[in-house]
Design goal:
Layout lengths: L1 H9 L4 H9 L4 E4 L9 H9 L7 E8 L2 E8 L3 E2 L1 H7 L5 E3 L2 H8 L16 E5 L8 E7 L2 E5 L1 H8 L2 E3 L2 E2 L1
Parallel strand pairs: 3-6, 6-9
Antiparallel strand pairs: 1-8, 2-3, 2-5, 4-10, 7-8
Helix pairs in contact: 1-2
Length: 167
């Protein structure tokens, strides 16, 4: 299995798309030309794909009581750290060091996907995702998004659904 995944990654796949294909879920990959000068990776993705920012979700890595935790929230808003901590039974949350997030997930900032991470982290998906048939999340690199059902994303990441976004 690892050899097959490696071969797919070399032919243009990412660990996220390999994980989706292996799980047999329906998904669509959307590629766009990433502009390094754009101030927001998520808003850039929404604009490039012509998708509402409420339906495009960013993947953030936070430290909740010493444990790295993934938060998946709409790019149209912000992460509520207090709500994230509460969603996983924690007391305090802060954004994780970016280099630690990159090393732990195996992805670069702006391309961190909730899927196919090097180390599986506890994941919380904003409850607003359930109001859409499909949502978009990073496919594992800047300029690449994957569209899938929020239910499939939650199942594959073993995510807790909770109201962790604001704004």
């Amino acid at each position: 299995m690892a050899k097959k995944a490696k071969k797919q990654q070399q032919s243009g796949g990412t660990p996220a798309t390999v994980a989706l294909a292996a799980a047999g879920v329906d998904f669509t990959v959307h590629a766009y030309d990433h502009d390094p000068s754009h101030p927001s990776y998520g808003e850039e993705a929404a604009e490039a794909m012509g998708v509402s920012p409420e339906r495009v979700f960013k993947t953030l890595v936070a430290d909740v009581d010493g444990a790295l935790t993934v938060a998946v929230v709409p790019v149209a808003g912000q992460l509520d750290l207090k709500a994230l901590a509460s969603a996983v039974g924690g007391k305090r949350a802060a954004m994780a060091d970016p280099s630690l997030a990159e090393r732990t997930t195996g992805y670069v900032r702006g391309g961190i996907s909730p899927l196919g991470q090097r180390k599986r982290l506890r994941t919380v998906l904003d409850a607003s995702a359930s109001s859409f048939d499909t949502i978009c999340v990073s496919a594992g690199r800047r300029g690449l998004e994957v569209e899938l059902s929020p239910g499939d994303l939650a199942k594959l990441t073993e995510a807790v659904l909770a109201p962790i976004g604001r704004g």
